[in-house]
Amino acid sequence: xxxxxxxxxxxxxxxxxxxxxxxxxxxxxxxxxxxxxxxxxxxxxxxxxxxxxxxxxxxxxxxxxxxxxxxxxxxxxxxxxxxxxxxxxxxxxxxxxxxxxxxxxxxxxxxxxxxxxxxxxxxxxxxxxxxxx
Length: 133
Fold this sequence. Notes:
By secondary structure, the protein is mostly helical. 67% of the residues lie in helices and 6% in strands. The chain has a two-stranded antiparallel sheet.
């Protein structure tokens, strides 16, 4: 996960550290935290979409039958595609750069949830410090 650079926030793994020294920097750090939270939520939506695509692909692969279930034209097309792929490495639909492991996506989502929780608590901490004095 590649996040944008920040000046007053440092995120290491799931740990969120604030590098603000005074009130002005704390207000800027608060803006950065809110922006970072939106960015992380956007990344979480992408991961959920990716997980949904993997589950749908797994269901589709389980549903696809053998060659006996195909029509004659589909059987010929699949056979031709397999021969072309075996000979030249050409494939009519190149594979996308999606992770094949549902477990990896779920682990990323769990880690992202931890980071979002820490960012939210950092936002509350900074707001409390700014309101308190």
